[in-house]
């Protein structure tokens, strides 16, 4: 199942026909139109949606898609969670997840225009986990039961702000308006042949910036959920940015930062892509 935010309304999306079914109308009001509200009733919604054919819906323009999770209660970021990224940065693999927050006001959609606040902004394509069932102290073997789905994310980062303090302020440099684009849709876990091994990449025009696989994670999705929930109660609609593969601009020689006028395309196998225009 694929769900989306089409013009601010919750829809079921058929990727082959580019048709979408409006959930509020199809359910005769059983479920509301706002995309965020569905996560509080996720199990009930999944049961209902199993009998809906989204290809029978209306054609739509993908450019009208907004963030599938427009206002998450909590947004977690994980640093240094890919082996190849740790290697390129010359750092040892972490023994525990390096956790920071991206504030919810930074969330935007898959075709957003984002203003760069400086010439020190960087890109980080990431697999984003959306929580569908709240929980505390979730075991790794039950972790996927708490996942609503997966989506694509960009962890845009203003490096000067991120590293100007001692210790550095990760959360502030990663939370400018629009610095957390997500989308284009949320894809439920059963849609993937191997949900822990997905091709992931990022490009600007013909230039490939990142090209990796989520199988390279130091802490896979289930492990992250277990470790986060050992301390924090995870809530329906929470986002977990799970880290980025090698290729980020800050560790390249010479460094490669983003420029105004660029369009960054972030792609994950089985989900789709974000197209972020930088101004």
Automatic annotation (TrEMBL):
Q: Which residues form the Fumarylacetoacetase-like C-terminal domain?
A: 75-278
Q: Do the record's keywords include Lyase? A: no
In terms of InterPro entries, this protein maps to: FAH, Fumarylacetoacetase-like_C, Fumarylacetoacetase_C_sf
GO biological process annotations for this chain's record? small molecule metabolic process
- Asked if Protein biosynthesis is a keyword of the record, the answer is no
What are the entry keywords?
Answer: Metal-binding
A GO molecular function annotation here is: catalytic activity
Query: Which Pfam family name is an example for this entry?
Result: FAA_hydrolase
The record's family statement is: Belongs to the FAH family.
Protein name as annotated: 2-keto-4-pentenoate hydratase/2-oxohepta-3-ene-1,7-dioic acid hydratase in catechol pathway
Look up and give the organism this protein is from: Ornithinicoccus hortensis
> What lineage is on file?
Bacteria, Bacillati, Actinomycetota, Actinomycetes, Micrococcales
């Amino acid at each position: 199942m694929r769900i989306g935010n089409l013009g601010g309304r919750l829809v079921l999306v058929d990727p082959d026909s580019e048709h979408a079914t409006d959930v509020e109308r199809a359910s005769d009001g059983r479920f509301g139109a706002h995309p965020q509200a569905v996560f509080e009733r996720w199990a009930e919604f999944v049961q209902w949606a199993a009998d809906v054919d989204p290809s029978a819906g209306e054609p739509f323009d993908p450019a009208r898609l907004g963030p599938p999770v427009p206002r998450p209660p909590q947004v977690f970021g994980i640093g240094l969670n890919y082996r190849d990224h740790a290697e390129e940065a010359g750092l040892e693999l972490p023994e525990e997840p390096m956790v920071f927050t991206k504030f919810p006001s930074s969330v935007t959609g898959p075709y957003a225009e984002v203003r760069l606040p400086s010439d020190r902004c960087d890109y980080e394509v990431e697999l984003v986990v959306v929580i569908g069932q709240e929980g505390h102290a979730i075991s790794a073997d039950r972790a996927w039961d708490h996942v609503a789905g997966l989506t694509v994310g960009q962890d845009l980062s203003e490096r000067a702000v991120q590293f100007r303090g001692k210790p550095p302020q990760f959360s502030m440099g990663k939370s400018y308006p629009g610095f957390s684009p997500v989308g284009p849709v949320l894809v439920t876990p059963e849609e993937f042949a191997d949900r822990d091994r997905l091709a992931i990449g990022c490009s600007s025009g013909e230039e490939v910036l990142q090209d990796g696989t989520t199988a390279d994670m130091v802490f896979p999705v289930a492990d992250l959920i277990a470790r986060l929930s050992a301390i924090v109660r995870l809530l329906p609609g929470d986002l977990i940015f799970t880290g980025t593969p090698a290729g980020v601009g800050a560790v390249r020689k010479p460094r490669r930062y983003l420029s105004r006028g660029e369009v960054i395309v972030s792609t994950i196998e089985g989900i789709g892509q974000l197209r972020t225009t930088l101004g």
